Amino acid sequence: MTTKILPLADQDKTACSTPTKSTSTTNACRMCMPLGACLAYTGFERTVPFLHGSQGCATYIRRYLISHFAEPMDIASSSVGEAATVFGGEANLRTGVANVTRVYSPAMIGLASTCLTETIGEDVDSMIRRIAHPTEGLTAQTGQEIPQLVFAPTPSYAGTHADGFHAAVKAVVAEQAVAGETSQKVNLFPGIISTADLRHLLEISAGYGIEPILMPDYSDRMDGSSAARYDMIPEGGTTAEQVAASGSAQASITLGGLVTPGVDLAGEYLAKTFSVPHSHLPMPIGIRLTDEFTDRLSDLSGAEMPTWLAKERGRLVDAYIDGHKYGAGRTAIVFGDEDLVVGVASFLAEIGIKPLLVASGGRSGFLASEIARINPDLPDVEVLDDGDFNEIEARAAELKPDLLIGHSKGYATSRRLNIPLVRVGLPIHDRVGGQRLLHLGYRGTQELFDRVINTLIQVRQDESEVGYSYM
């Protein structure tokens, strides 16, 4: 009997054309939806993020966010295993909610699904109704008062971390916002920004006499002060009363908001449900986009720009003049979250640095049109959305930019191609203080401008045979 031996797949040497767009992702330029949801839930007062899925999801996300923010962070999990995958994970969810309630005493548990539970078809909304049932739920079963349960569906294959972030914020607003007499408050949905950016947005708003409802606000919980005793739920976050008042605010502002189609924004929900006027503005990075943001605050408040802020703007203009000769004519590749790279590309155009490639792992489908809309005079900008670092590095090797501007996941490309990297956004794992980098407003732009120009100067200085120390 003769046995036919089939060749291994990699022994087939038949030539084939290489597609221009890879069908696989190699080192994604994005993170998962549940990660964004967990970060968003952390920005609401006394809320514990809870993932309905395997333990590994919660462990990975905790490690990833702790590495960036350098703060302890707890994420609960229903720890779905083999048996629950086959027979359903409701028992795990009930046990997990009961344990979190007993150990943490939270005001709210922010639930998010994962790939596993979405793939097996878990009906989490129905599970929540049964858990909260007055006679058959956990309160009747355990005698514990169950906190408010909020749920956002966030399977990783359905979107990015930015999508999960916005989905979680919308879920909280949909549960807690109520109608009322229109107030002078302004809802501010900032997207994923640094803790320093969050504090600065509050400072700018206060300068116009505006009481903003910042949703979410994780500036204290994810960048707190040293304490002698560990607090299981650190202080800080947008309060339930503030979220409730968002339904009667005079206006909402969403900074960025480029999300995968099908993901609803909280500002859009408030506009549809409570008729709260909603404005989409780009991230206020650079003079022009920050002017757009401050003009909107002035329109809402009727107040002029405060003196301290006008001085910051003036100092930034002066810095542009001082540093123009070092940056003019240089080139850069920008990568990261869609909302952030739109603002950074506009800023680079202001200071004379040409963005050769703007790349993101986002899937909104509007990245190119948004860059063109904001920068109509910026020609020949290559845009890569739903991209990965395999593609980014290949283009960087061909385009040979002077700079890379993005997060730490681009360091390997920077090292291999010997192109300096200016770190912005999330995640920053290889530097101290990434959570405190300021990007927004005139002050944030000033800090970013200094870092960009000084990086260019250092490269020239390091390459000089003389080793000059005076410019």
Question: Could you give me the name of the CATH homologous superfamily of the largest domain?
Answer: Nitrogenase molybdenum iron protein domain
The count of β-strands is: 13
Strand content: 5-15%
Spatial order of the strands in the main sheet? Answer: 11-10-9-12-13
Give a quick summary of the entry.
With 471 residues, the protein is an alpha/beta fold.
Key phrases:
alpha/beta; Rossmann fold; 4-stranded parallel β-sheet
Explain how this protein is built:
The chain has 471 residues and is α/β, with parallel strands linked by helices. It has three domains: 33-171, Nitrogenase molybdenum iron protein domain (Rossmann fold, 3-Layer(aba) Sandwich), CATH 3.40.50.1980; 176-224 and 233-301, Nitrogenase molybdenum iron protein domain (Rossmann fold), CATH 3.40.50; 307-462, Nitrogenase molybdenum iron protein domain (Rossmann fold, 3-Layer(aba) Sandwich), CATH 3.40.50. 44% of the residues lie in helices and 12% in strands. It is built from 18 helices and 13 strands. The strands form three sheets. A five-stranded parallel β-sheet has the order 11-10-9-12-13, sandwiched between helices. Helix 1 packs across helix 8 (161-176), helix 8 runs parallel beside helix 11 (266-274) and helix 13 (307-327) runs parallel beside helix 18. The longest helix has 23 residues, at 441-463. It is globular and about 80 Å long. The termini are far apart.
